[in-house]
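lol ok so funny story. i was supposed to be doing the assay writeup but got distracted and ended up predicting the structure for this chain instead. priorities right. anyway since i did it might as well share w the group, maybe its usefull for someone
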Amino acid sequence: MSDFTTNEQLMAKAAYDAVEKRKEEADFKDYKSFALSFPALIHSCGLVQAVAFAKAKKKDGFIDDIQAVFNKIDDAGDLQRRSREADITEYVRITRHAISAASWIKRYCQATD
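and the output, tada:
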C-alpha cells in the first residue's frame, strides 16, 4: 500500500496544531468564540468581507491560523489580498479552501473545554 494523505487530513493536522498552541493563551475564549462563527461569516458575506472584518476586529492571529491551515494544500500568501484580486473561478476555489480550513479550526475549538 502507498502512503496517501488527503488534503483534508493535512488541514486537520494543521488546524489541530494551531488550536493546541492557542489553547495556552489568555484570550483563547475570545479566539474560540470567533472561530465558531467564522465559517458562517464566510458563507453569509463572502471571503473578502469576512477577512476584512477579522482584520478590523484585530483577529490577525486567527487569520494567520487560517492561512497556515490553508497553506498545507495551497500557498495562501496574503489571503486578504489574494481573495480580493482573484478572478471568479479562483475566488470560488480559495473560498472553498478557506471554509474548509476555518471549519477544521472550528471543530477543534468545539472539542476543547
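Residues 88-110 form the longest helix (23 residues). The mean pLDDT is 91.
back to the writeup now i swear
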